[in-house]
User: Fold these one by one.
Assistant:
Number 1:
Amino acid sequence: MNQENLSFRGGSKYVLDDELAKIVNVSMALEMPLLLKGEPGTGKTMLAHAIAESLQMPLIVLNVKSSMKLVEALYQYDTLTRLNDSRFGDSRRNVSNIEEYIRMGKIGQAFVSEVRTVLLIDEIDKADSDFQDDMLDVLDQMQFDIIEIDKTITARNRPVIVITSNAKKDLSDPFLGRCNFHHIAFPDVGLMRLIVDVHFPNLDKELSEACIEAFYRLRDLKGIEKKPATRELINWIRALKTDSHFQMKSLSRGNTPHMGILFKKSADLTAATQQIARMR
């Protein structure tokens, strides 16, 4: 594949609008990280999977944790294995060669890969600002140092970088200034129809419309902390399709079977159930 003429137009199970396709392609052309914000379930993470699928690149995922240090994303020095090897002396590794005990982290793996990769840095807002800014320094320079062996790792191929944020914590201005930014809004009814059609090409249109109408009605309920997202709708439709006792007319009457698929928190499920009961 000619890496100079890559163009992303969507994945087999990923529906996107023109603006999102443009910002993905612009970010690849400018070799800048793409920062995606939006509520959970809007497809931020799945976009990286779709890019990897479409461009036939390996996907490497760094799931950011609140306690994570940047060095963990770059490499780890396995001191425990080296200690065991030195004590028991039955390893094929050369204990005096520290490099044999260096393991690449997710960013390191993307840098040393023989082929260009898609690097997904998921939920960056969980990390502190020092992690964020230092990470972008590494991604700008496309290199980092392994201090234990005094060696610089330089990226063989610049990865396509997708960074997601659930906007739970503000990102620093320097961080925002070094990324291309796109906010993925929750799909409107028209786009959701396209998404459902992609996942269920043979779904009865009347059933599809009934499910989508019920889904948005449930999202509008009051006092719900975690509103059902697109993946919940897809799983809910799967459940309805396999339920031999399900009758579509029940949806129009306000009945909602399998609500545990849509609402993942006990308090939300209770609140939704009570509100639906009052509506009947």
Note: The beta strands are 34-37, 59-63, 75-77, 102-104, 118-122, 143-146, 151-154, 160-165, 180-183.
Number 2:
Amino acid sequence: MAQVSELFRHPIKSHGCEALTQVTLAAGKTFPWDRVWAVAHEAAKISPDSRDWAACANFSRAAKAPALMAIRAEVDEATRTVRLSHPQLGAVSGNPDLPSDAAKLIDWARPLMPEGRAQSSFIVKADNRGMTDTAFPSISINSRDTLAALSASAGTEISPLRFRANIWLEGLSPWQEFDWVGREVRIGGARLAVRERIGRCLATAANPDTGERDLDTLKLLKQACGAQDFGVYAEVVNGGEIRIGDRIEIL
């Protein structure tokens, strides 16, 4: 039986993940509290007062700064406060909407940014949606069974946190999720349209415990499926609640 195994949100893009047990999705919206904020770097083509979606190239992210992968996050929804922690830096908390707190969060993470790269500069958010990697309001779905197959080919267990998904499923055939592109799925009380595969970047090469690149995930993916793809992007058609253990139905 295919079912939900894990749920995650990533409140600040590329700056940590938080595990959940349930979530309520809304039609046409991104995963709640996922990529609400993003850290723009000094070479970004957007302004500090931008409220529009922008491409990932504008932001400090783990593909360029692998140490960011070791951040964990927690959100206090009532106060809009994000707590970030990292094995090398300890913890920090702040509301990214407040300029003083945003500056504090950026300063805390600054030691994780490599020399010679555009440095983090300011925090932005898009109106009414998360700053996902797609121009449409996407939710990422990954398969634990595909991850197990990839781990077997790598000869080592690969952490799911390398792939920063919102919804993890189990009980499928490896790579089965690629067949859903162009179809709809029902997960718990929500219905989603699967739009496209997720093309992966160097962020997945970094160990989420240490923030160091230690695995050639892109080569492994190319060998396994002929492309550097893992997981699928979907868009919510009908909203509803999803809990760990909920079943998935292919429509």
Note: Helices lie at 99-109, 144-154, 217-225.
